Amino acid sequence: MENEDGRRLRSVVSYVKRGGRMTVGQQRAWEEHWPRLGRTVSELPPGPLDFTAWFGREAPVMLEIGSGMGETTSQLAAAAPELNYVAAEVYDPGLGQLMLRAEKLGVENLRLLHGDAVVLLTEHVEPDSLHGVRLFFPDPWPKKKHHKRRIVQPSFVALVASRLAPGGTFHMATDWENYAEQMLEVCSAEPALRNRYDGWAPRPDWRPVTKFEQRAEVEGRVSHDLIFEKP
């Protein structure tokens, strides 16, 4: 991203670029499905991404940021065939595993983007175009000195709000209490959004409980959902 003088702007990276070798199955999924289902953010042509052409149909676009190993994403996409479901993730094996899960479930309405979601939103998503954005259990950066690396900051929330269509929703979930409070504070301060509930949202029964969330519960952490919408 550049400013008006053409100088490169530095942004805080909220994720760790993890390594990890893909399994045989994940590698096969990349070879068989990536050419049709996936694109790399850094290799996209300038300008907005044409989701209608990519999916081959016009439908509301749901963007999930940080799909991890695809456990939740594959089920959510399968449960909402009326949506053009887009998953953005930086972890290669996670995208491979998501493609395997989608293949097993027969999911057809899913596309994958490999790379930084902030760059994607800034450079390749049109304003007022997304039906919704989901951010489930982002990296909590639990140490206080690392809180500035959390993705939910005022500038990010403003960016998400600008890309939501009127009536669109920004749905977050985290099992870290102080991160949930930060999400609530930051999103409540964004004038383009309003909280659909008075504080925390009820945990939706359609959001699958992952092993990650189950572990958090065992460790005594309570998950919080927040749903903000663009009037």
From TrEMBL:
Organism the protein comes from: Amycolatopsis rifamycinica
Give the EC number: 2.1.1.33
**Pfam families attached to this UniProt entry:** Methyltransf_4
Keywords of this entry: Methyltransferase, S-adenosyl-L-methionine, Transferase, tRNA processing
Family matches, as SUPFAM superfamilies: S-adenosyl-L-methionine-dependent methyltransferases
Q: Sorted alphabetically, which NCBIfam families does this protein's record hold?
A: tRNA (guanosine(46)-N7)-methyltransferase TrmB
In this chain, substrate is annotated as bound at K143, D175, T210, K211, F212, E213
Which family is it part of?
A: Belongs to the class I-like SAM-binding methyltransferase superfamily. TrmB family.
According to UniProt, the reaction catalysed is: guanosine(46) in tRNA + S-adenosyl-L-methionine = N(7)-methylguanosine(46) in tRNA + S-adenosyl-L-homocysteine
Q: What is the name attached to this protein's record?
A: tRNA (guanine-N(7)-)-methyltransferase
Pathways involved: tRNA modification; N(7)-methylguanine-tRNA biosynthesis
Gene encoding the protein: trmB
Listed InterPro entries: SAM-dependent_MTases_sf (IPR029063), tRNA_(Gua-N-7)_MeTrfase_Trmb (IPR003358), tRNA_methyltr_TrmB_bact (IPR055361)
